Amino acid sequence: MANGVKEDKTMEKRGFACFKLSFVFFMLNVSSSALPVRGFYLKSGRITDFNASCSRLHLQAVPRDIPSTVRGFDLSENRITMIQAPDFKNFSALITLDLKRNMISQIDAGAFADLISLKTLNLNNNRLTAVGDDLFHGLSNLTELRINNNRIKNLSSTSFESLTSLTFLDMSYNRLHLLTKVHTMLQQLPNLLELSVKSNLITSFHSWDLTNRSLKLTSLDLSLNDITVFKVTADVFPNLTSLSIGRIHSKRTAMQWDIRGGTFFSRVSTLDISGLKMDEAAMRPLGENFNPSLTSLRMNAMRGTRLTKLVNVSCSVPTVSRLQMQQNNLHYINAKFFQLCANITEMDLGKNSIANISYEAFRSLPGLKILNLSQNKLAFITPATGNLPTLEELDLSQNYITTLGCNSFANLTKLKILSLHQNSIPALRKCVFEGLIKLQVVKLQNNSISKLDGAFSIHLPNLKRLRLNINKLTAIKRGDFAGLQSLESLALDNNMITTLEHGSFKGLSNLTELQLSTNRIDETTLPERFRDLVNLESLDLSENRVQFKNAFLTPPPFSGLSRLRTLVFLGNGRRGKFSLPYNLLEGLTNLSFFSARKNQLSFLHRDTFNYTPRLQTLDIGANDLRNLSSELFHPIGGLESLYISKISLDSLDFLIDANLTKLEFIQGKLNQYSVLSEEVIKSMPSLVYLNLQGNSFTCDCDNAYFRSWIVNDKQTQVYEADKFLCNYPSELKGKKLLELDVKSCTVNTEFIYFISTTSTILLFMLTSLTYHFMRWQLVYAYYLFLALLFDTKLKNKQQPKRYDAFVSYNTSDEPWVMRQLLPKLEGEQGWRLCLHHRDFEPGKPIIDNITDAIYGSRKTICVISRRYLESEWCSTEIQVASFRLFDERKDVLVLVFLEDIPGAELSPYYRMRKLLKRRTYLSWPRAGQHPNLFWEKLRQALGTKDDPGREELVPTLLDRQ
Description:
By secondary structure, the chain is of the alpha/beta class. The strands form eight sheets. It has a 30-stranded mixed β-sheet, with helices on one face. The longest helix is centred in the C-terminal third of the chain and has 45 residues. The N terminus and C terminus are likely disordered. It is a single-pass type I membrane protein. This is TIR domain-containing protein.
């Protein structure tokens, strides 16, 4: 018989290997005190790439369990009120510290003293009222400091003494009112390049209030202060390139300019005077003091100023090339507005109320390259843009445009970027982009476009990005994008697309990114639609209506996308249970990110990822998978991130044999597993982050290792492990897992180590000797015992003989039995035979069937081959039959050899060798040319009486061995 076959040699190898593993594991446990620990947990926050993130956790104090080796520490948007001296003790490697949006009103002296490597400190949006003595002591390497949106009124004379490397300082939106305070600060910051004191309470600016020596400042922002007098009598800013002094919404009179030296601002290239009331006297310094280098002028919200006059004064500065004029409540632009602006190359007129533009308005701007008309009230494309043949970028977004005509962009042959998003355009025409051969980016999102009408079938050889998302497209037709051979990114998400015709993406051989999410695409639309996208790297098909009905797809929809790296397939299970065909990913040999999240998946075939050997990130969260097979992950051994949150998973045991040795990140929130075994944890040697929020755990010795590992491990961060709750046993329900006392679960004494080591060594020696000298005797003794057991059980039981013979054979010899033995003995000679596959009683234990068959038959025919000798159940059958032979003294055993087996090969089988020494046997191979004689001798053997004294079956066909 072959049921339950176990080869003795295999048993031997496995037994020895098991012993070796046990011994090695024991020795590792003995020496575990010498091994470094490898994991940790944080009560608040998480750590990624040496950066600690504790943002938005409602913390009231700086957590003390953050490793001191982190380089970035984000504590923003919490409820911290005070920074104490020990909070950042020993954080000598920290480079970035973010404390913005807390309630900090007090910082202890020396609180930052250990942060010797810190370069960036953010204290924005807190409640500091003063900067005290030595507040920043120790921060000699700090280069960027942000303290805006506090309540600072006072600066100590030594506040900034330690900040010798500071290059950027932002103290905007505070309550500084005297420039002398800023003067004290600047004296202590020799390397400061950028300073912002925007929106304080400064009312005047006098250069003598600052310092008697020149400063390195390149950028100064004094905007949103109610400065009435701006007086500079000394060259204190020889390096200044950017100056902001505007005051939007000020109710005061025009600011007085008093600049004594004509070269004091000779290097300023960017000037922001937004919000100032500029009369002719105030306009004069623009041409007199900023003339040599001024290139960019911001004049936003200039209410109460003669804007046309100011524009022409500004344009009279020959170096000015960029004008920003937002929020000026402009309604109409006429021909005189930019009459003197021939040198302007960039014009920003956004956030006005422009509804009409004169045809001649831009004729005096022959070199204009960038024009921003966004957030106005234009209802159509103004013909005035036709007078701008050099225009490269046009922004008409967020207007009221409803129509695009064939001449809307006439003459704009150099246009590269066109923004028309957030208008009310219902359709495109084939001629609308004709002639725009240099166009690189078109933004048409957030319109009402339902038809493309061939607008992109014409040749646009340089177009690389096209955004058509958030429109009303229902179908993509063949050749719709045929003219876009250089297109790299196409956004069609958030439409109503139900149809993708064959050839929809024909011509897009250079496309690398395609967005098709949030449409109405179903599974019938996918086959062969993407075969033209040979260079596609990212495809988003999430939130559609794809509902596969077959487990195998012909052809696979993505088979031609060998360069695809990202495939997003989430949110397609809105119509009930969803399954992935196991060849869905066929052809995606370079896929590294795959998301099948939120699809109501109930099953993943084990071959699903056979086609994606380079997969690094897998998201199958928010499904109903419940169980995962380790075989599913065998083809993706390089997986680094696994998202399995909210899938009703009751165990992580699949990880034990999954062989995910490179797995670094697991997100497994909101599942149902309650135990993490030692084997599971050790199966993830590279794990650095584990999130199991929303699970509850068994609080007994089953989780003893897990609990100890959380506390002691220094490689893997277990997110919010201190909040893990118990669900069993009932008396501990609601308690915390980390409060579990695991001392009773382990014995860790030197005595036990000694006893265990000694016992292991002795056992090893005894096992080795026994294995070497007596291994076959032990195996034989085991089967002998089984045979004796069942023989004793049935020895006195009188059982009627239902069969003439029970045939004992191995499954591999079944063809000979069925084709040779059975037709001869039953068909021709008329014997009644018992065969296990035909006559055993279903549902009955196998050993009972064997003993009943042997004792219910007059004879037992053993069909012997090498496979037979190696079979566990065949050995049992011959043992039972031999016991009946010896104990009942009846001639019940007939041996038939199908192979010539030398005596040397029979030596391990002690019972068989003993039988052969005492009995004659039949050999099929040696029957030779006389098979009829073989069958006759076998008939005679079956016909002999059960004479216990008879030793020979029939005259032998060959000599005894």
